[in-house]
């Protein structure tokens, strides 16, 4: 905990803490990204420099041991485009970087799979990734979507992955070199694992019989990846005795691997979109779950306050984050933050402002900075127009996902719990680093920083209250809560 005496000091302190940590990226993505470096030209001098589109690093010299295949330049009309030195391909936007896990995404969700670090890695689901020409072999778990330099004790790699013409194919370890032993996708194992058999038996029980591909579910009860608790998504596949649930596109579409016991039907108040109904005028309508009906159905409440019973397969769960534009800003602009909507657990509409980092890229995890304003309102970047040029705000605009909730309480009141709900929703995003979340506030927001930090200390790497008046009788309680 840090107590600061000025607003600028709080920002500098929070950003300094954030930069001390490293942002972990899946090694599979790093090792396979032969096209992550792009050659560009300095507009003033014409000198070539190199930009890493994953880490946003820029260097003057070509990266050692890496082949730079993409070049960025302008056409005759001044529009920027990219061209591939080997294939001579040209494009307005760079294609997504290839990595081994992409090819085993569920067929109807190709490209939607994201890498999430999970602690439970089946020992028989490892692939040895070789032949990419970018370094020594490493191991990738196609169930947990994790990668390691060395196998865990007792683990085995039943398959090896090789790259040809920019695409991965798979072979069984020890198999003869023949076309029958090579596959473009992860082949189905001859004998299902004990975990897979247990899942099959569990899904056949009356308690889990409602689970089927495409159904919307609630994730809860996770002890390791707690940030996914309370999130809703779609069951898209099962693999290695676990269920794969895809979260909302607005969160980056991460796929979470969980046990069936951690999945439940959607709770009352969950927001859904109706689809595939015979009454076509209702398709696309937004509704809320009112209750569970019999025969695998929901009773939903429509916007005109009427109720209707619909099959569970005809509703698509919606995230509580709305109106978010994922386009990266080019620079820090006065009042340039997005005005976004969050729907809290009680169905109330809450407003907040969002600023994505300059150069934002969804496949990179960014630290999250939450700013609580004072009585006069505002955001981190609207304190004064002149301050936009300050080193601290410029650094924040490049480095953080910055969220500024519209604090609707007064300086004598307590912060509303929906702010914590908003933060928890953002932590499930594939583009937020859940280990690097910082909370700061000014005046009334400084008081809110103490209170929210004490209510949910496990969410934050650090807090920075500034000019935060508080009642003395609360000090001992706050200290005890923050110390855990």
From TrEMBL:
Transmembrane segments: none
Secretion signal span: none
Record keyword Iron-sulfur present: no
Keywords: Hydrolase, Signal
GO terms for MF: hydrolase activity
WW domain boundaries: 31-65, 70-97
UniProt keyword Signal, yes or no: yes
Pfam families associated with the record: WW
Classification via PANTHER family: FERULOYL ESTERASE, UNNAMED PRODUCT-RELATED
Protein name, as recorded: WW domain-containing protein
Organism per entry: Noctiluca scintillans
């Amino acid at each position: 905990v840090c107590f600061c005496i000025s607003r600028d000091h709080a920002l500098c302190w929070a950003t300094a803490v954030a930069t001390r940590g490293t942002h972990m990226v899946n090694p599979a993505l790093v090792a396979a990204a032969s096209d992550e470096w792009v050659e560009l030209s300095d507009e003033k001098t014409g000198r070539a420099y190199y930009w890493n589109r994953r880490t946003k690093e820029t260097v003057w010299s070509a990266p050692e041991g890496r082949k730079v295949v993409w070049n960025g330049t302008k056409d005759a009309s001044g529009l920027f485009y990219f061209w591939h030195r080997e294939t001579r391909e040209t494009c307005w936007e760079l294609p997504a970087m290839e990595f081994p896990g992409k090819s085993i995404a569920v067929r109807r969700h190709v490209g939607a799979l994201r890498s999430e670090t999970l602690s439970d890695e089946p020992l028989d689901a490892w692939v040895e990734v070789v032949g990419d020409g970018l370094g020594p072999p490493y191991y990738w778990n196609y169930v947990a979507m994790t990668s390691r330099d060395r196998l865990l004790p007792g683990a085995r790699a039943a398959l090896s992955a090789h790259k040809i013409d920019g695409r991965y194919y798979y072979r069984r370890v020890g198999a003869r070199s023949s076309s029958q032993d090579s596959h473009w996708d992860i082949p189905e194992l001859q004998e299902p694992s004990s975990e897979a058999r247990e899942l099959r038996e569990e899904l056949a029980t009356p308690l889990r019989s409602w689970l089927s591909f495409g159904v919307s579910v609630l994730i809860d009860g996770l002890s390791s990846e707690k940030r996914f608790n309370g999130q809703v998504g779609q069951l898209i596949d099962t693999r290695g005795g676990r269920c794969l649930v895809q979260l909302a596109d607005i969160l980056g579409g991460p796929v979470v691997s969980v046990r069936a016991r951690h999945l439940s039907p959607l709770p009352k108040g969950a927001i859904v979109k109706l689809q595939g109904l015979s009454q076509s005028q209702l398709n696309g309508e937004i509704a809320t779950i009112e209750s569970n009906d019999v025969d695998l159905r929901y009773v939903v409440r429509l916007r005109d306050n009427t109720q209707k019973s619909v099959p569970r397969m005809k509703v698509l769960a919606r995230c509580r984050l709305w109106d978010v534009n994922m386009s990266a800003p080019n620079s820090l602009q006065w009042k340039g933050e997005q005005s976004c909507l969050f729907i809290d657990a009680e169905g109330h509409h809450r407003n907040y402002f969002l600023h994505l980092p300059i150069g934002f890229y969804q496949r990179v995890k960014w630290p999250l900075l939450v700013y609580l304003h004072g009585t006069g309102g505002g955001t981190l970047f609207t304190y004064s127009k002149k301050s936009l040029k300050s080193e601290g705000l410029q650094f924040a605009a490049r480095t953080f996902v910055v969220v500024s909730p519209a604090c609707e309480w007064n300086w004598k009141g307590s912060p509303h719990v929906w702010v914590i709900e908003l933060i928890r929703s953002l932590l499930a995003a594939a583009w937020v680093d859940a280990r690097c979340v910082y909370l700061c506030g000014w005046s009334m927001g400084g008081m809110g920083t103490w209170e929210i930090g004490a209510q949910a200390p496990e969410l934050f790497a650090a807090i920075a209250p500034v000019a935060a008046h508080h009642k003395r009788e609360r000090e001992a309680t706050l200290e005890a809560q923050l110390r855990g």
